[in-house]
Amino acid sequence: MKTIIRNVVLLWIVGVAATQAEDRNPLNATAVVDMGGFFLSTDIRVRLDGEGGMVGDPIDFDDTFGIDRFQRFRIDGLWRIKGKHSIRGTYFKNDRTGTNELSRDINFGDETYPLGATTTARWQLEVMQVSYDYAFKRSDKYELAAGVGLHVLHANLGMDATITGAGGSVSRELSESGSTGAPLPVLGLRGIWRLPHDFYFTAQAQYFYIDYNEYNGSLSDLKTTIVWQATPRFGVGLGYNDFRFRFDLDKQLFDGRLRWNYGGAMAFASLAF
After folding, report:
1. What are the two backbone dihedrals, phi and then psi, of residue 80, each rounded to the nearest 5 degrees?
2. β-pair partners for 39
3. How far apart, in whole angstroms, are the C-alpha atoms of residue 17 and residue 11?
4. How far from each other are the two terminal CA atoms of the chain, in whole angstroms?
5. N or C: which end of the chain has fewer CB within 10 A?
6. How far apart are CA 116 and CA 222, in angstroms?
7. What is 2-272's CATH superfamily?
8. What residues form DSSP beta bridges with 5?
9. Quick one: pLDDT band at residue 182, thresholds 50, 70, 90?
10. Structural contact between residues 204 and 223, judged by C-beta atoms closer than 8 angstroms
11. How many angstroms separate the CA atoms of 165 and 147, rounded?
12. Cβ atoms within 10 A of the Cβ of 256, count?
């Protein structure tokens, strides 16, 4: 939280310092940078199969290990290269751990985690997105663009448990993990509209589907924001992002199924150059 406040304050200072400069806003700026907090809620469902042919059990990580909503720093950017051409990007990282006593036996990879075992789950999820947009409609009141890009999601998930025997002695330790990550091409649409009283509304959508060899699944990314341009170059905004990732994988480091949905509100500061 302190990191988010510090970055927002720094962005505010830079924005105030630029108030006497030429007016910039989300429609005419060469570059726009949004930084702030992502109040994230997730739904992670995983099945990791073993190399020996053992089929893993479906696991709802959030329900099983008891973590629901949390806050995450996030940065988004847009750079208008020339005329109607622009580049957009997003980055944020989500690392979490949770510990709970299992209410059932769970097959995960090549290990079976027994009922009653105190188990720690760890997941590291990193999202990077970059895309090229072409604005096919532009005016001083709106911009409509279509684009193509890459959405990179790197996931590393694991479970650790210590099994105790009679008298509290350690009988064995279990540890299993799987990871996957690849650049996925996406197609997208984006729109920006100028509203009264220096407000700007943005909506964008990206989608991808594949059924090829070891990959089968889809990705969708929907986002809306509204920004109040408080000064000629500085704004504050609120938004909402909904992301859904569903894949069946047959790879060396991750053989199984990964379902990851996240969504939540965003509060951010916006600086236009």
Report:
1. -85, 110
2. 71, 265
3. 10
4. 26
5. N
6. 40
7. OMPT-like (2.40.128.90)
8. none
9. low
10. yes
11. 58
12. 22
Q: Are 243 and 224 in contact (CB under 8 A)?
A: no
Instruction: Tell me the residue ranges of DSSP E strands in 114-141.
Output: 118-138
Judged by phi (left if over 0) then psi (alpha if -120 to 50, else beta), residue 80 lies in: beta
Residue 206 sits at the vertex; the CA angle it makes with 202 and 207, to the nearest 5 degrees, is: 155
pLDDT digits (tens, 9 = 90+) for 127-174: 889 999 999 999 989 999 999 998 887 878 888 887 776 555 455 666
Closest CA to 224 of 237, 214, 211, 233: 237
How far apart are alpha carbons 210 and 8 in whole angstroms?
Answer: 38
pTM for this predicted structure: 0.79
Contact 41, 263 (CB under 8 A): yes
Determine which helix (DSSP H) or strand (DSSP E) holds 147, and give its type and residue range. Answer: strand 142-164
SS3 state of residue 114: coil
Question: What is the token pair recorded at 209?
Answer: 């589907």
> What's the helix, strand, coil split of the chain in %, to 5?
10, 70, 20
Q: Is the CB of residue 138 less than 8 Å from the CB of residue 174?
A: no
